[in-house]
Amino acid sequence: MKARLDGATLGYGAKPVLSGVDFTLNDGERVVLLGPSGAGKSTLLAAIYRQMTKARTRVALVPQDHGLVPQLSVRRNVYMGRLDDHSGIINLGRLIHLPQHVRDGIDAILLPLGLSEFATRPVEALSGGQRQRTALGRALYRGGEVIVADEPVSAVDAVQSRDIMSMIAARFPTALIALHDIDLARLYATRIIGLKDGRVRFDAETKKVSDAQIEALYA
């Protein structure tokens, strides 16, 4: 088991966003969160991410706001996925000059993401979709046991979405991801959790989740 919540109330400050949350993330699961904006998907992702990092699980994160450094290049933003693997002195040096073997490793990540030609371009000069793929590249470069991702394909087209989700599935044995694309959720997830009005409305294997249950989330 990677993470667990028992009857948890989650939120920011004194204001609860989710109440009575029972949740587990088991090894080898690909769990997708569905629900309208404001349902609490990001809140649940953040709580599980904090729990796992506190337990020293190696987690790759793709936040909804990307969390990139605008002035730095795509390549250096991707490198930041492994900052905590090295000392401050090494990281400072590499933010000035990346060794060839490090560049090669990063470029191998950028290629299937369609970002090779933007490797040296500052992130602030990219489109929304390119920034999103850069954030994913950082997570892929970091690697680890689990990925936690908040709408990681919302700014790319349907073909890219499927390719990216395939990359995630191949790289990370366990995943917790918020998505807006229901068809993609059904294709990728082994388990789907539906959130609405601050509550978990269902939590079941993908094949057991009905269209009616999903439609009710957005009604």
From TrEMBL:
Key word ATP-binding present: yes
Record protein name field: ATP-binding cassette domain-containing protein
One MF annotation (Gene Ontology) recorded for this entry: ATP binding
Domain ABC transporter, first and last residues per copy: 3-219
Superkingdom: Bacteria
Role played: Part of the ABC transporter complex HmuTUV involved in hemin import. Responsible for energy coupling to the transport system.
Keywords attached to this entry: ATP-binding, Nucleotide-binding, Translocase, Transport
Any Pfam family the entry gives: ABC_tran
